Amino acid sequence: KISVLEGDSVTLNSDLTEMKDDDVIQWRFGNISIAEINVTADRITVYDDVLDGRFRDRLKLDNQTGSLTITNTRTEDTGLYELQTNSVEKTFVLLVF
C-alpha cells in the first residue's frame, strides 16, 4: 500500500535493476493497460488517453528499471496497479488523499 497527498508525485518501483533483452513490461490500472516497455522492439508506450484521458501527460516510465511515476496525483488515481514482466508480477494499492 502506498499513500500520497493529492498533487504529489509517486513512483511505483519495479525493483528491477535492469531489463533483459527480451523483457516486456506491462503496467495496468485495474485491468486497463496504461504503459508498456518492449525491450526487443525498443519501444516504450504510455497509454495516457485511456480512461477518458485520466493520466494524460502524467505518466513517466523509467526505461532502465521499468518503474512507473505518476505526477500530480488525483484522488481518482486511487486503485490497484499491476506490474507484469517475463519474470516478475507485483501489485500496488495506491491511495490518494
From TrEMBL:
InterPro entries referenced in this protein's UniProt entry, alphabetically: Ig-like_dom_sf, Ig-like_fold, Ig_V-set
Pfam families hit by this protein: V-set (PF07686)
Chain ranges of the Immunoglobulin V-set domain: 2-86
Regions crossing the membrane: none
PANTHER family: CD48 ANTIGEN-RELATED, LFA-3
Name of the protein this chain belongs to: Immunoglobulin V-set domain-containing protein
Organism from which the protein derives: Culter alburnus
